[in-house]
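Input sequence (174 aa), recorded before submission:
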Amino acid sequence: MSAPAEADEGAVGSGDALRHVMGTFLSGVTVVSTVWQDVAHAMTATAFSAVSLDPPLVLVCVSKQSRFHAAVLGAGRWAVSLLRDDQEPIARHFSNRGRDLKTQFDRVEHRSSPASGAPLIAGAHGWLDCDTYATYDGGDHTIVLGLVVRASREAPSGRPLAYYRHSYFDPIAP
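Predicted structure, token format:
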């Protein structure tokens, strides 16, 4: 017999209620990056997913209030680095609002992606280079659908970085 569910059922009514429930959903952690107006932009994203194999499509959800929003829509090309469990400091760095755009990659080992030129995080499990395929209104976010034009699995070992209950962690650790 299973344990009784929390008595928290009903209409959502606020973003806080949705955040509370979704905090129990395990998410992988990525850094999405682009180059727009000769400046590298990046953000940590957990709202990222594969969508289709034919054509190869992924999506990322970007807050309309973030400065990354204008950059990713303006550039039309972007990259995704799939982070490893030892890259939590990088995830935290790119989730901090207000960091200096001109120096944000100074202490982060990276290289330019072959198609978009966007920064790729060194040591990540893999990366995807994308062209914006479509965008959709998603309330306070824009859903950015990307056509994957290049991809590589880089790190042959290591574990993924995950996000669960408002914390980063290694989902495979004992």
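Checked by second reader. The first strand starts at residue 27 and ends at 28.
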